[in-house]
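Handout, section B. The chain below has 168 residues.
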Amino acid sequence: MLDFERKLAVFSSFPELVRKDVSLGRVNFHYEQSVYEKKTVGFHLHPNGNGYVYAALIPGAETDAKGFVNVRDASEDELREWIAASIRSLSTRPDGEARAATAPSPEPQAAAPASAESRWGNDEGQTLRLTFEDDLWYVFAGQHLESAFETYDEAEAYMREEGFRKLP
């Protein structure tokens, strides 16, 4: 298993990726030229060695429910292959539309709600906190991270699916 610093070095060796430090010492890497709304290639690289690469658009990749593969035990060559494949998959749509790497066209961004933090509750009296930080929406149960999303719409859909509603 590669240590955290070596994994960071491998991700950083891809000049098209942008490093985003997030909570709990974790690091994400974004591909800003993505032709999709999805921009995250490296997700939650953690000092304990854990981390994920977005692979939902890579044919044959076995991913989790959010489209990521765990790269905790990946060799350096395997990690480089996953990263390169992820970038390629985010560079071209199935219809062949590609984005020029030198002059990316800006994508419209959905406006974030006025408040970057909200409380949500369910009928059982449980509450969750939704917080926007470092370009991600985080769902917390008390001090514990429940989940993270790239867009407010994804976070809101998750909360509603789990039976929560926004509290006043």
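Note. The radius of gyration is 17 Å. Compare this with the example in section A.
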